[in-house]
Amino acid sequence: MSIGSNLYLLYVQLIFILLTFMPARLNAQTPELRVNLLGYPAKGPKKALLLDFSVIRNRYVLESLDGRRITLAAVRSGLRPWPPFQQVFTLDFSGVEDTGSYRIVRHDGLLRSNWFRIGVQPPVHEAVVGFMQTQRCGYNPFLDKVCHPYDGRSFYGPMPDSSYVDARGGWHDAGDQLKYLITGSNATARMMMAWEAFPDVFGDEVNAWGRPGRNGLPDILDEARWGLDWIHRLHPAPDQLIHQVADDRDHLGFKLPYNDSSN
Ligand SMILES: [Ca+2]
Q1: What structural domains and CATH numbers belong to the chain?
Q2: How far, in Å, from the CA of 125 to the mean position of ligand 1?
Q3: What's the predicted TM-score (pTM) here?
Q4: pLDDT at position 20 over 50
Q5: What is the DSSP string of 15-76?
Q6: What would the pLDDT profile of 86-100 be if each residue is shown by its tens digit?
Q7: How high is the pLDDT of residue 28?
Q8: 137 alpha carbon to ligand 1 midpoint, in Å?
């Protein structure tokens, strides 16, 4: 597998994150055209999604910046409905390999996708590493703040409930601020594997704390080590393995990590 196609998988993962947390537009009768805003590799598969409310009655074209137009077929995707949309179609333009800027347009011109590029992709693998930095718990380099310094107290373990264990560090799982050993381990492993596969593409712009300043280590390994150190803390003895830090009380509304009132 080439460097380009593997980096493309990183792009796809980022897009999945973006789409997962992107709320559907509340205007319930407007179809949506969704494309990969990070672009498509020239030789790779290229699909857009059309989210609609009924059977297709319109034609769609792929329009280049210099005015070329290619008619696209909207095909039922087989994907389950994505409320409020009842129908999901795919528009495949994998055969288009000319580098350039494009968008998808409904024939009446009233529905258009964002412009996107084919054959040109930004180095977003660094952005993925940067996202992990923003999720750091303990010392957060993005906010330059310390959060959750008292993690944590144990339950259901070999020691008495409410015993102190050092579970500082790791990453907040998502919009909430729980921390999970399984997802944290998965993220750590993926970063190590990404570096192992492509040791030359990752930069060194931050130190071990994730703050500006080179430390001679690729930033993706700084981030992987942040995860490894936390994983070791969660396995303090042969008969102790902590798999989750925090619980549903962490869903106490929206707040920055250092303002978290759950204990
Ligand atoms: Ca570094």
Answers
A1: 3-9+24-118 (2.60.40.10), 125-259 (no CATH)
A2: 14
A3: 0.68
A4: no
A5: HHHHHHT-PPPS-TT--EEE--TT-B-TTS--EEEEEESSS--S-EEEEETTS-EEEE-EEE
A6: 889 999 999 999 999
A7: 52
A8: 18
